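In the laboratory, one determines a bound structure by crystallizing the protein with its ligand and collecting diffraction data. In a computational setting the workflow is compressed into a single prediction: the sequence and the ligand go in, and a structural description comes out. We illustrate the idea with adenosine-5'-diphosphate.
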Amino acid sequence: MFITFEGIDYSGKSTQANLLVECLKQRGCDVLFLREPGGTAISEKIREILLDRHNLAITQKTELFLFSAARTQLVTEVIQPALKSGRVVVCDRFYDSTSAYQGYGRGLVPDDVRTINRIAASGTTPDLTLFINVDVDEVFRRWRSSGLSADRMESSGRRFFEDVRTGYQELAKSEPKRFITIDGMRPVETIHAEIWRIVQTRII
Ligand code: ADP
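The predicted complex, in structure-token form:
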């Protein structure tokens, strides 16, 4: 079973992914936890390029290809073998992030993004995608209250994050069986309990 977490930065994805992974492990489940971009030697090198603030000249299409290159390496080297051997794979972000950020956020042509996502995923589709839905004001509040400057996020622009969030909402609408929207404005434990209920119904 392949479970992915999606949402805008600071929506609480990794908090919830960690809680779910712990819960699965406690119940004896053989679970592999990954986060994108990364997870293989090559994908981690690509991650460094993507996160390097000095790479100001990076174009939107270069980002699209780099995220996708890191993903295809992860799928082939790690995700597909793990799923084949019956493990549960939990991934913090997958190709829906590319659709939401590069497609809806940066405005690249949706059909192009879909095609590249399909190539990069090599036929691997999440069984369940949990979209942690939080409004942009809340994300900015969390960013500030964790002691970080909101500059980096706010310099990307409120509009950008609104567009990414709208993108996720559209994606969720288009694939309601796979894509479950979780209200991320509630306390961590309440959200976790809902996610655990959903995952249990899918795993059994
Ligand atoms: P993401 O992986 O989506 O970037 P994180 O899980 O790292 O988000 O959470 C970002 C910040 O928000 C952290 O400081 C975390 O403690 C806080 N946070 C996560 N979930 C909640 C929640 N439900 N309510 C309030 N704060 C939260």
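The two ends are 11 Å apart (CA to CA). Keep in mind that any predicted model is a hypothesis to be tested, not a measurement.
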